[in-house]
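Appendix B, Record 12. Input sequence as logged:
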Amino acid sequence: MGVELLFLLLPIAALSGWLLGRRETRDTEGRQFSLLSSDYFKGLNFLLNEQPDKAIEVFIHMLEVDSDTVDTHFAVGSLFRRRGEVDRAIRIHQNLIARPTLSRQQRDQALYELGTDYMRAGLLDRAENLFQELVAESTSHRQQALRQLLDIYQQEKDWYKAIAVGQRLQGMGNSAVSPIIAQFFCEQAEQALMLGERDEVLRLARRALVEDRNCVRATLLEGRIELEAGSHKSAVRIFKRVEQQDPAYLPEVIAPLQEAFLQQGRGGEMLTYLRDILARHGGISIMLALAELIRQQQGEKEAAVFVTGHMRGHPSIRGMERLIDLKLLSSEGQARDDLLILKDLTDKLLESKPVYCCSQCGYSGKTLVWLCPSCKQWNTTKPIHGIEGE
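Logged structural output:
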């Protein structure tokens, strides 16, 4: 048994003895006797002999559940859960629920704590049943139970139930849940996309935008469907919306936006648009797309001049790699060999670097994820900026 557990249980032992002594003093009206029972020493003996489970049973038995001790049970159960000893927390909270002397509020609190224990243990079906009971019957814990249900349905990827719970929270004045509901609609849209149900994708994406007009994910889905349907003018209008929603995601929209422009023969407009957003927001992806258009329309030399000028004020590894590629087109001999060495170096540097990072927990990776796999927050993973990123 660790030292931490000993320090956790000793106060319980002391409190047990004190409460027992107080009751005995009250019951005997001042007669002289020992304030501590044999059970108290038995519990201490279990502790000292590294038998914490038996010690817990003794102390819980001594702490009869009444108005004086119920808060102690809650505190001890929470401590065990935070320590990761969920089985012990479950036993304490089950012991509470089994007592008929609890008030309605105390019972609701015990049900909520037990549901939280089950969630921590991964027993989501049991937790769901308890939280649904609280939603139906409790007033003091209804919102808390709904938030836990939202978490459960998110883990289970049951987006229909998650949306329904989120909307109930909305109806209780929780407007902050709207962007999360928008992500749930986007999850449904992604499923519809896999099934080839394009009309359903559009409906769900637009429903997400009703919940959160700044939902970039919904805009990307809507724009993709319009682009695949050949509605290029509509796709341009939709993709341009990202700049107002969240400019950090502009790198995600450059390629499909360029395709939509070029399909209409509007390459010159795309060039102008890229220059404008580069001036407003910067970003290596925008610069590289602009450099490629310049190369196609004006040649490699003009593209190299443009990249060199941009790199002086905004150095980046990806920009250096593109500049090397452009120089290789007109180099030969020793100069070409030297450039190939540099290109190999930049390729290896970029290969090992993440592209996206979560602003909440620092999780990083090469793929854009809308739900951070580390901190479980929505819409916090964005393109990395700086010399190694955008």
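The beta strands are 356-358, 364-365, 381-383.
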